[in-house]
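Justification of resources, computational component.

The compute hours requested in this renewal are based largely on the per-chain cost of generating structure records like the one below. Each record pairs the submitted sequence with a full structure-token output. That output is archived, and it is also reused by downstream analysis tasks.
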Amino acid sequence: MLANSLLFSSCTKTVDSNNSGTTVTDKCYLKVFDFTNTSTTYSTVIIGPDKKSYVFTPGIDTLYNEIPSGISLAKVEAFGTGYLYSPTSVNLSTGNFFTSFIYNQSNNVPGIGFIADDLTIPPPSYARVRVLYFLSPGATNLPTNVGIANATDTLMTYNRTDVDFVRVAPLTAFRPVKASIYSVYANNSVVGVISLTGGSIYTLVINKIANTAFAYTLYTNR
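The structure output for this chain reads:
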């Protein structure tokens, strides 16, 4: 898995060294995204078990970054102000892949969450996909139905909210579907069309950008 150089990169973003920290040789792999949909640019800050800080700016870091594994402190940093939000402890276990999401909480404070990524390649005629849902500022946080469907296959989840990926772990897993073209649904309306290629793994992100409007983006994990 790690031989694929297009999948991950070595982390070179150590911004704060502390020589009294523990030397860490075990590694894990982290991909970061920002789904707050605000004018502020946020970064993911990881303070690793080696007591060094690792900073990633979503939108620039598109690959999995290699960082020390173990119990780490994660924060959201606002670019330009340096404000730090939503500190949380996370166990980034050795050898595993993780995705970190910065998202808009209902209290307008950016939150941060982590998902463990199973990157097992599906059979050639299947893809694996997960559907995540996020709320943009100004949109009312009501339960929302999201998913994909075509004439033969359906992958739908119901009553989603913008924090489901944090508190309902089964909803964050990649699910197998036949490789094909799918309609993207939000509240029983088609908001777009995606094509899923056999042998690939995807994350489909659906944003509620207004009370009756949705947008979506399809990301390739592998």
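Confidence is low (pLDDT under 50) at residues 1-6, 16-20. Residues 164-167 form the longest helix (4 residues).
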